[in-house]
Amino acid sequence: MTTVTVENINYKEEIRRKTSKPLMWMGIVSIIMFFGGLTSAVIVSQGGGSFLSIEMPFSFTISTFVIILSSLAFHVGLISINKGSYTIAKISVLITLLLGCLFVVTQYMGWVALYESGVYATGNQSTQESSFIYLLTALHVVHLIGGLVSLIVVLVKTMKQKYSLDNSLGMQVSITYWHFLGGLWIFLFFFLRYTIA
Amino acid sequence: MSTHHHHAKDFLFTYIFSTDHKMISKQFLVTGFLMGFLGLIMSTLFRLQLGWPGESFEMIEMLMGSWQEGGVMSPDKYLALVTMHGTIMVFFLLTAGLSGTFSNLLIPLQIGARDMASGFLNMLSYWFFFISCMLMLASLFVEGGAASAGWTIYPPLSALPEAIPGSGAGMTLWLVSMSIFIVSSLLGSLNYIVTIFNLRTKGMSMTRLPLTIWAFLLTAILGVLSFPVLLAAALLLVFDRSFGTSFYLSDIYIGGQVLDHTGGSPILFEHLFWFLGHPEVYIVLLPALGITSEIISTMSRKPIFGYRAMIGSMMAIAFLSFIVWGHHMFLTGMNPFLGSVFTFTTLLIAIPSAVKVFNYLTTLWKGNIVFTPATMFSVGLVSTFISGGVTGLILGNSALDINVHDTYFVVGHFHIVMGLSAIFGMFAGVYHWFPKLFGRMMNNKLGNIHFWITIVCAYGVFFPMHFLGFAGVPRRYYTNSEFPMFNEMIDINVFISICAIIALVGQLVFFFNFVYSAFRGPRAPQNPWKGNTLEWTAPVEHFHGNWYGEIPAVYRWPYDYSKVNAAGEYVYGEDYIPQTTPLGDDEKDGGEH
Q1: Domain map (residue ranges) of chain B
Q2: Which of A27, B89, B374, B380 is the most buried (most CB within 10 A)?
Q3: Distance between CA atoms of B265 and B61, rounded to whole angstroms?
Q4: pLDDT mean across residues, chain B
Q5: Chain A residue with minimum CA distance to B239
Q6: CATH 1.20.120.80 fits A34-39+53-195, yes or no
Q7: Which residues contact A42 (CB under 8 A, 6 or more apart)?
Q8: Mutating which of A10, A20, A128 best tests the B interface, going by the most B Cβ atoms within 10 A?
Q9: Dihedral class, residue A173 (left if φ above 0, else alpha if ψ from -120 to 50, else beta)
C-alpha cells in the first residue's frame, strides 16, 4: 500500500490547541473515579462497625494551608503572563514549586507522626483504617509528583519566556491539574477527618 | 548506509511506533485476535477434560508437555486455563481488541478528523496493551502456573500467595498485567471521548453521528468511569498480598495456622470488582451493538429505525450498568431489600435492550437485504442478544438467581449474551471494514462458511449449558464425574466439547481468509458497500491525515438509504446519499426529527 504524507496540512497544532485541556479534564475524571473507588471502600469497610478512631497529625492541617497557598501563587503566575510581567510570573511559579515540595514534606511529617503514635500502614499491628489513611494520602502524593514535574516544565518555559497572552495553553493545563490536586487534598483531608479521625 | 538508516526509521515509525490511528487500529486488531485465538485454544483444551474426564490425549501431551503429563490435564492446570481463558477473552480480545480496533479506525474517519486528539497517547495505549498481553502470557510459565482464581480473582485465593499453586507468581503477574492494561484502556478511552467532542468536521452535529460513534463514545465513558475503580480494587489486593494489610482478609486459617489478617472482608473486593465488572459487560457489548446498527442499516438499504431511540437506549443501558452490580452478589448475604433494589434496576435493562432489538428487526423488515458475511454476523448478534438476554431475566431476579447461581446456567447466559454477541459484532466489523483496513476485499464464500460453522457450533456449545445449570452442575469444577447425580449429564458435555472443537476449526477458515485477503484479496473500491458515512469518502490508500485537502463537510445524517421522492424515484438516482451531499430544498435531515 502506498504511504503518502500530507506535509502541506499543519493539522497537529490545531488538534493540540483544541484537545489539550479536554484531555486533562478527562484524565481528572478518571483520577476522581480512582479515589472515588478507594473512599467508597473506606465507607463500605466502615459499615462493618469495627473502625477505630485515629488522631489526624497536625502537619496534615499545615498541608492544607500550603496547598491552598500554592494554588493562589500559580494563579498569580498565570495572571502575570497575561499581563506580560515575566518577573512576577517566574517568582510565582517558583513559589508554587517550593510550596508543592513543602506539601510533600508536611505529608511525610504527618506519616512520621502517625508511625510514632503507633498507627502502622501494614503488618499485624495495622488496622484497616490505619492502612487506608496512609494509602489515600500516599496515592495523593504520587499524583502530586506528576504535578511537580509539570511545574518544573512550566517554570523552565516561563524563564525562557515561551508563554504569552495568546500562548499559555501548557501553563493553563498545568494549573488546571494543580488546582484539582489542591481540591482533591481538601476533600481527602475532610473525608479522613470525618470517617477515620 | 544513510538511506538504509532512513528506511529503517520509516519502518519503525510507520509500522511499530506509529501515531496514525489507522495503523494503531490494525495493531490492536492483530494483537487482539492472536490473544483471542490463544484463549479459544485454552477453552478447547479444558473442554477435552470436561467431555472426557481423566482420558489421555497423546497429541495433547506432545503439544503441552508437562502441562498434561500422561495426556491428562491436572486440576491446577485446568483452573489456570479457565482463568486465563476468561481474562483473555473478556479483557484482551473483547475490550482492547474490539474497542481498540474499531474506535481507532472509525472515530476519526467517521466524524471527519485527521487523527485522534493525541496520537502519542494513542500509541502509548497500544504499547501498554501489548506489554500487558506479554506479561499475562508470561504468567503461564512461572512456578505454580498462571492465576487460577477465576477471571474475577476473588480473594482469598487471589490475596494469599500460599492459597493454591496459581496464587503465587502467576497471580502477581496477573495483577501487574491488568494494572498496565487499565492504563492502556484509560489512555484509549479519554482519547476517544475528547476526539468525538472536539474534532468533528463542519456540520457533524451529535445528531448526525453514526451510531457506531455513539456506541464508542458511551463505551469510552463507561471505561473512564469504571476502570479506575478496578485499579483501586487491584491496588488494595496488591497491598494485602505483598505488604500485610487486611483490606479483604480476616480470620483465615491455612494448614491449621491462623494468619495475621483481621478486619477485612472479601465482599469489599466483590463490590469494587463488580462496580467495574458490570459496566465491563457493556464496554464489551456496546461497540458490537453500534457496529451492528451501522451494518444492518447499510446492508438492508434502509434508514436505521428509531435513530434517536437507539441513542437513548444505549444511554439508558450505559447509565443502568452502573447501578446493577449487586446482582452478581445475591449470595453474599445481602440484605433482601437491597437485593430487590438490584433486581429492579437489573430488570429495567430489558427495556432499552428490547427497544434495540425491535429497531434492528424493523430496520431489516422489508429491506433490500444484501447478504454479506458482515450482514450475517450482525443478524447473528441480534439472535444471540435475544437468546442470551432472555436468560438474563432469570439471573437478574434474586429469587430465581439463587437456584442457578454459579452453575453452568450462568456460563451459558453470559457467553451467549456478552461473548457471542460481542465477537459476532467484531467479526461483522472486520468483514465490513476490511476494505478500509487493508484496501482489499475478503472472500465472501469463506466468510459465509465461517459464519454458519460459528453460529451452529456456538449455540451447540452454550445452549445445552442451560440444561446443565438447571440440573445443578456447578461451574469451574475440574470434573463432574465424581458426582453420581451428574453422571447422566456426561453425554451433554461430550456434545458440547465436540461443538467446541468444530468451532475452533471454523475459526481457522476465518484466519486463512483474513491473512490471504490482506495480501492477495481483490483490491477494494473506495465505497464497496455504497455506504453514506465519511470513511468511504477517504482515499483507499492510508496516509496520516486521512483526506487530501480540506476535510469534507457534512450536511445530513448517515442513514439516507433508499430515499425516494413523491414520484417514487431515488432522490439522487442512487439508493444511498452520502453525508457530504447537501440537503435539497424540500429535504429534512433524518437525525433532526
Answers
A1: 21-592
A2: B374
A3: 41
A4: 94
A5: A122
A6: yes
A7: A129, A132, A136, A191, A195, A196
A8: A128
A9: alpha
Cβ B118–A19 below 8 Å, yes or no? Answer: yes
Please say if the pLDDT value at position B200 is more than 60.
yes
Write the CB contacts of B516 (distance below 8 Å, at least 6 apart in sequence).
Answer: B443
Element (H, E) at B253: strand B253-254
Say if the Cβ atoms of B245 and A131 lie within 8 Å. yes
Per the CB < 8 Å rule, is A37 touching B233? yes
Please write the tens of the pLDDT for every residue from B87-114. Answer: 999 999 999 999 999 999 999 999 999 9
pLDDT digits (tens, 9 = 90+) for A124-161: 888 888 999 999 999 999 999 999 999 999 999 999 99
The CATH superfamily assigned to B21-592 is Cytochrome c oxidase-like, subunit I domain (1.20.210.10)
Chain B residue numbers touching A1 (CB-CB < 8 A): 438-439, 541-542
- Closest residue, chain A, to B245 (C-alpha): A122
Residue of B nearest to A2 (CA): B541
Nearest to B197 among A12, A22, A30 (CB): A22
Residue in A1, A9, A38 nearest the CB of B232:
A38
Q: What span, in angstroms and rounded, lies between the C-alpha atoms of A46 and A128? A: 9
Nearest to B194 among A12, A26, A34 (CB): A26
Q: Per-domain residue ranges for chain A?
A: 34-39+53-195
Cα separation, A141 vs B300, in Å, equals 56
Comparing alpha-carbon positions, the chain A residue that sits nearest to B549 is A9
pLDDT per residue over B204-244, tens digit each? 999 999 999 999 999 999 999 999 999 999 999 999 999 98
* Contact across the interface for B264 and A45, Cβ inside 8 Å: yes
Q: Give the whole-angstrom CA distance, residue B487 versus residue B124.
A: 51
Give the pLDDT confidence score for residue B69 in this predicted structure. Answer: 74
When mean pLDDT is compared across A2-16, A167-181, B206-220, B363-377, the lowest value belongs to: A2-16
Residue B455: count other Cβ atoms within 10 Å of its Cβ: 20
A135 interaction partners in chain B (CB closer than 8 Å): 235-236, 239
> Which of A34, A121, A131 has the CB atom closest to B231's CB atom?
A34
Residue pLDDT, tens place only, B310-328: 999 999 999 999 999 999 9
**Reported confidence tier of residue B487, pLDDT bands at 50, 70, 90:** confident
How far is CA A1 from its chain centroid? 46
Tens of pLDDT, residue by residue over B406-421, are: 999 999 999 999 999 9
